[in-house]
Amino acid sequence: MLAAGALLGSALLAVPVAAHATAAPDPAARSAATVAAAAAGLDDPAKKEIAMKIVSSAENSSLDWKAQYKYIEDIGDGRGYTAGIIGFCSGTGDMLDLVEYYTRVKPGNVLAKYLPALRNVDGSDSHAGLDPNFTRDWAKAARDAEFRKAQDHERDRVYFNPSVKQGKSDGVGVLGQFIYYDAIVMHGDGTDSTSFRNIRGRALSKARPPSQGGNETTWLNAFLDARVWAMKQEEAHSDTSRVDTAQRVFLRKGNLNLDPPLDWKVYGDSFRIG
User: Fold this and answer.
1) Would you indicate the residue range of the signal peptide (predicted)?
2) Distance (Å, rounded) from C-alpha 131 to C-alpha 127?
3) Is 235 annotated in the active site?
């Protein structure tokens, strides 16, 4: 943009000033503003707050994502306990990682005594060594600011930062980065066929991301098609409304920057960010 602006300025030097007394606003300035707006990623604080609310609408049927630090239950999806702001699971390793990190930050915390049990139940839906008091102690830990910060840290390290990084690498904007984030929250990024990386690989067989010369909307539709396929492989995730009546709504409207106002539905419930 600096080079283009310099050339434009040189050209204007040869033109009488009077001829430009009523000129339209500088197109270079408009372009710069557009580029600056497009450069804001999902990691912009305002956009990140929107992302947290939309995910919470699907995960917790509420926009109040900060109320979810204390949330914990077994939802019957084969992953044991699901808990916290992003659905850390006792059966998938991310809850173990969280409690290990929390214990490094704050040794002797109320959850530290469950570390042996969390290691033993990893990879299963078992509650062995966790019941009957784990859910009570989780809620107690959620009153601790250090535990809430630990949840934020692990959410960003494992899910948010990798999805934003991949989105920027693929050349997609805020909506695309959010679409990636929601996918990795649900599916993780392991090696199984429904993981984030394999959803992306399935989409690559149908379209190309902007970084490879593809159209952004076409690419995101291909990614969402692959995401829906992945969701339907598992009964617990077979309701695809978080894609159909939320993410696709934003995409159809061309809202690639995820700008409010935003209206969507998940599981039949309506939500709005004004």
Assistant:
1) 1-21
2) 6
3) no
Residue 188 within a domain: yes
Is 144 a known active-site residue?
Answer: no
Residue 32 near residue 23, CB atoms below 8 Å: no
Q: pTM score, two decimals?
A: 0.84
Same-domain check for residues 231 and 164: yes
194 with 128, same domain: the answer is no
274 and 169 in a common domain: yes
Q: Is residue 10 a part of any domain in this protein? A: no
For the stretch 56-114, pLDDT in tens is 999 999 999 999 999 999 999 999 999 999 999 999 999 999 999 999 999 999 999 99
Count how many domains the chain has. 2
Which has the closest alpha carbon to 267: 222, 233, 231? 231
- Of 26, 44, 49, 59, the catalytic one is 59
- 191-213 core/surface letters (b: 16 or more CB in 10 A; e: else): eeebbbebbbebbbeebbbbeee
- Give the active site residue among 43, 77, 144, 152: 77
Domain range for 104: 70-141
Which stretch of 2-6, 78-82, 253-257 has the lowest confidence by average pLDDT?
Answer: 2-6
